[in-house]
Design a protein that fits this description.
Helices cover 46% and strands 12% of the residues. By secondary structure, it is of the alpha+beta class.
């Protein structure tokens, strides 16, 4: 049983954004503060990546742990109700992520995935690592 009324749950779900989320905005501000220019949600690329750095031929995908099912993450829990809806929904998201990732690589873009939990828990370390990944193609 849901802890919210149907109306409250509907309102909560309607407030969830697909673009310009807080994690995306946080990373964009960080990159801009370091002098890196980017494009947002470029419709010309598969999956409309969150951040595109044309100079470095790199895209940054900012994934929410719940919506993109970050494996072994405490934020990637499945809802206890309506599993027949949620499991296929989240699996479609994961499948689309993989498909878009491969299509971007075929277009010779480097793909960097930043998870929501990394922003919440190890922000400064992950952002320094992100800058290194963007500027150094051989990083890893």
């Amino acid at each position: 049983m849901d802890v919210h009324t149907r109306e409250t749950r509907s309102y909560n779900m309607s407030q969830i954004k697909g673009k310009n989320t807080k994690p995306e905005e946080t990373i964009r501000k960080y990159l801009l503060g370091r002098g890196l220019r980017y494009r947002k949600n470029d419709k010309r690329l598969p999956g409309h990546p969150d951040i595109v750095l044309p100079k470095y031929k790199t895209v940054v995908l900012v994934n929410g742990c719940f919506w993109h099912h970050h494996y072994n993450c405490k934020y990637a829990t499945l809802p206890k109700t309506r599993k027949d809806y949620w499991i296929p929904k989240i699996q479609r998201n994961v499948d689309n992520d993989i498909k878009n990732y491969h299509q971007l690589e075929e277009l010779d873009y480097r793909v960097i995935v930043v998870w929501e939990c990394e922003i919440n828990e190890v922000f400064e370390y992950r952002m320094q690592q992100l800058i290194e990944e963007i500027k150094n193609p051989d990083y890893k």
